[in-house]
């Protein structure tokens, strides 16, 4: 049986990941592909989606900060970086973004 953990912080996620039979995931696309290929699922899935702040987008001085879980649709709609938004619109199909 597979267990799904939903840590509320990066520290909790890191502790859970010490279990070598666990797998971190944020969106799950790669895991879906692996399961479709017949690979065995891990004993524990660690869902990173509940950790706050990982999907943020903002400017920091002269640079841009994209959270590790910022999705393509959010980047495409981000008015603060029109060049990046235009590039995001060219990646994958709209259903995937």
Strand content: 15-25%
Kindly report the average pLDDT value.
89
**Total strand segments:** 5
The separation of the N and C termini measures: 31 Å
- Fraction of residues in helix: 25-40%
Task: Flag low-confidence runs.
Answer: none
Number of helices: 4
Spatial order of strands in the largest sheet: 1-3-2
From the spread of the alpha carbons, the general shape counts as: flat
**Order of secondary-structure elements:** EHEHEEEHH
Task: Give a short account of the largest sheet.
Answer: 3 strands, parallel
- CA radius of gyration: 16 Å
Class based on secondary structure composition and strand pairing: alpha/beta
Q: Features of this protein?
A:
97 residues, alpha/beta, three-stranded parallel sheet, 4 helices
Task: Outline the fold blueprint.
Layout: E1 3-5, H1 10-16, E2 22-25, H2 29-36, E3 44-47, E4 57-60, E5 63-66, H3 72-77, H4 82-88
Parallel strand pairs: 1-3, 2-3
Antiparallel strand pairs: 4-5
Compose a concise summary of this entry.
The protein is 29% helix and 20% strand. With 97 residues, it is of the alpha/beta class.
Describe this structure in words.
- The chain is an alpha/beta fold and 97 residues long.
- Helix content is 29%, strand content 20%.
- The chain has four helices and five strands, in the order E-H-E-H-E-E-E-H-H.
- It has helices at residues 10-16, 29-36, 72-77, 82-88, and strands at residues 3-5, 22-25, 44-47, 57-60, 63-66.
- Strands 1-3-2 form a three-stranded parallel beta sheet, with no helix packed on it. A two-stranded antiparallel sheet has the order 4-5.
- The longest helix is centred in the middle third of the chain and has 8 residues, at 29-36.
- The radius of gyration is 16 Å and the shape is flat.
- It starts with a strand and ends in a 9-residue tail after the last helix.
- The mean pLDDT is 89.
């Amino acid at each position: 049986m597979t267990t799904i953990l939903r840590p509320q912080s990066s520290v909790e996620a890191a502790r859970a990941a010490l279990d070598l039979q666990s797998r971190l995931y944020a969106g799950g696309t790669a895991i879906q592909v692996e399961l479709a290929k017949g690979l065995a699922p891990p004993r524990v899935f660690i869902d990173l989606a509940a950790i706050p702040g990982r999907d943020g987008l903002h400017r920091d001085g002269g640079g841009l900060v994209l959270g590790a879980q910022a999705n393509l649709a959010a980047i495409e709609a981000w008015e603060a970086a029109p060049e990046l938004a235009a590039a995001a619109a060219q990646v994958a199909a709209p259903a995937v973004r």
